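Data availability (excerpt). The following record was deposited with the supplementary files.
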Amino acid sequence: MIQQIDYFVIAPPLVLALAAGLVLLLDAFLPARPRTVIAERPGSSLPSRPGTATGLGLVTLAGIVVALGFVVAQALGGGSPRSTFCVPPGLAGSGALCSFVADGFTLVFAGMVLAAAVVIVLMSMTELAGGAIPVGEWYFLLLCTLVGAVTLPASRDLIMLVVALELVSLPVFALTALKRYDGRSSEAAVKLFVVSVVSTAIMLFGVSLLYGIAGSVYLSRLREVFGGQATDLPAVVTVGVVLVVAGFAFKIAAVPFHSWAADVYQGAPVPVAALLSVISKAAGFAGLILVLVTALTGQAGTWAPIVAILSALTMTAGNLLAMRQRSAVRLLAWSSVAQSGYILAPLAVAATAPGAVGTSMAYLVIYAAMNLGAFAVVMLVSKAVTRNELDDYRGLALRRPAAGVTLAFCLVCLAGLPPGLAGLFAKVFVFREIVGGGAGWLAVVMAVNTVIGLYYYAVWTARLFTPAGRPEPSPYRPPLAAWLAVGLALAAAVLFSVAPQLVLDLTSLSASG
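Predicted structure:
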């Protein structure tokens, strides 16, 4: 029997894969320009092709926009979810068994990933302007990461889920180390590689245990086997559930699997740090939600307390460590860890609260916009200063009003203060859900951590409007791409602040669908 493939369903990842191949071919055959630039190691030089670099960036951007167009077309198509790579009906037994499903959950995550990717490509154009990083390899690896990030929320079997998650992770190792002759980048890449390998091994061990008990890799079949009706399941199922949760905890930098985050964020190029904090994190949460809520709902008695404890520890450790930071990137890294705790909180009550998944998705979407805006401004400042510490941002709103106001607004949103209503309502959504789900103690922990988070966000914001007392160390004129990245991130932050309830309604509807 011939497998029927619905190419419209797989169009977004397929377009990204084709764009990656096209970028690799263009980089190999386009002629090099004669100009050279000094690389980061003294006394060495790398060939720079400014026209080629811009062209490859535009090709990458075009591929992302086309893929995003297919996601929008699928969303506007309405109707029931569409699927492909399905087991023939004669072999599937009761119910359909499909590996790739494009439903509301898939489309929201894919749309968020691709929208964030547009900003990250614009940031990459700025990062690559110096010529010290191979352009073709950079965009090829970035597109490969996006293929995995778009495929992962559509995955409905364990094999595709693990493969997609690794496709998100593996190119990031190389992206982190592409900044040649930079010891911090090399160290960050090695740390990220080791942590990812360990997390994958733990996850695969747990997945193998679940498969061994259920005899199937499909999430819908796992839901039937591990459902509430099953009373004779062996104790090894609990071990499998714990290992799978631990594996995903590494990917989203949840405590106690978080120690890699700050060093990797600081050592990686700023666009890669933004990718890790938004796209990689979103992929990790998509996989975690699919496994827990779709496949292991019947085992909520095992994983719900674990998720609640991880959430409390993650938000607490992230906020406390962020208070001690003087580096802007490290502060955003620990802030990102704390935000992971907030996103995890509703999942702790997902088995009893129908809107918990939608609330986590809404918080993740809002967080992504604010964090991208902050990283876009940090990248601008990093080009003009050496250490990129918080003191380097003194008077930024006075020297560069657009960048300073954008960063201030994003920080205020992350803190959950007005006029950043998006961040405020996102936290209110989470409070409401976890209290309604019966996890009052977790709401208290989150309330305390929200107050702690106000401190370092407020301190950084105050610096932006404090006169620096000295001129900017190195005058830097950002290219148009950098300002477009800042503008797009700010536009999304303002939009979500104007209509935060719209985000919750959209994500809740998609999660229930």
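Summary of structural features: Strands lie at 36-38, 45-47, 82-86, 98-102.
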